[in-house]
Design a protein that fits this description.
3 helices
Length: 67
């Protein structure tokens, strides 16, 4: 069950990361988003970090309360 919580946390974290990206990148034009490589690396990596942290948090919370 711990793996299931980790996977659910990763999925919800990825969705939350996408919502954060929408918030931070809402003022960028389409050309800036397609051509600026620094945006790709900075915000792309941030999304994966958020997903990993949420996965860890879900697994830790499950372990704390249900194990």
């Amino acid at each position: 069950m711990m793996y299931v919580m980790g996977i659910l946390g990763f999925i919800f974290g990825f969705i939350f990361g996408q919502l954060v990206l929408i918030f931070f990148l809402r003022e960028k034009t389409k050309d800036e988003l397609l051509n600026d490589r620094s945006l790709k690396y900075t915000y792309g990596l941030a999304n994966w970090i958020i997903a990993g942290l949420m996965s860890y948090a879900f697994a830790s919370i499950y372990n704390l309360y249900f194990s």
